Amino acid sequence: MNENNKQKAVLTVTDDIREKILNGVYPEGMALSQVDIATTYKVSRTPVREALQILAGEELVEIRGTGRATVTTISPESFLEKCELRALIEVKLLELSIPLMLAEDFAKAREINENLRNCQPEDWTPLNYQFHEVLYSPANRPLMQNVVKGLHHRHYARLKSFILSNRNTPKSLREHDDLIERCEQRDIEGACYALESHIMMSAYALSEQLKSHQLKRRQIAQDLTT
Questions:
Q1: How many structural domains comprise the chain?
Q2: CB 160 within 8 A of CB 102
């Protein structure tokens, strides 16, 4: 396999496994056999190893000293820390955006919030990200926005079922409306406080729910072994 074909194989394997992890097809704790993956994609083990290393860098896969790879378990503490990081960056982005926002930015945010009001469950997470993205775009800070995008897609995507089953839609929509109004009023302090609360209250709830879910899984596993 020449270098060009190898890199194509690495990208194909990486993208496909990433998608399966994010969509829950490969659940947390699942072992990822290099041999099985290589057979599935009809490639050698070299691009498989490279793909798993990339996914390990994204914290989607854990590779132990033996070389054995497993899908990472989402730590509630790590998830909460990433939400805290997300809140810090997004609040700064909003602070920078508000003085630069135009009427079309507010109109777009309201349009997306209305779409959220009537969307299908599977469309909630991407639309919600779009809502926040519209608020931050005027800041013109692509590096910061890429960090936020990475935190959102890599970690919230894996919690899709939690978000869909436990979100408080009326509350989220009210908070979005409040954010838009504060931005229109150029109330930077009030908008930033509202945004931080909006992100972190949801994060605390999801973190506690994740703890409860993992505890139940451990109890079931113990019952099966006794």
A1: 2
A2: no
Query: Does 178 lie in the same domain as 125?
Result: yes
119 lies in the same domain as 60: no
Dihedral sign of CA atoms 87, 88, 93, 98 in order? positive
Question: Strand, helix or coil at 185?
Answer: coil
Task: Output the tens digit of pLDDT for each of the chain's 226 residues.
Answer: 566 777 888 999 999 998 888 877 888 889 999 999 999 999 988 899 999 999 998 888 999 877 789 998 888 888 899 899 999 999 999 999 999 999 999 999 999 999 999 898 888 888 999 999 999 999 999 999 999 988 887 667 777 766 676 678 889 999 999 999 999 999 999 999 999 999 999 889 888 888 887 787 777 767 776 6
57/133 same-domain check: no
- Domain span at 20: 3-71
Last residue of one domain, picked from the residues 71, 87, 106: 71
Q: Which of 35, 136, 24 is nearest to 89 (CA)?
A: 136
pTM over 0.85: no
**Rounded distance, CA 67 to CA 74, Å?**
20
Neighbours of 62 (CB within 10 A): 17
Helix ranges (DSSP H) in 23-75: 34-41, 45-57
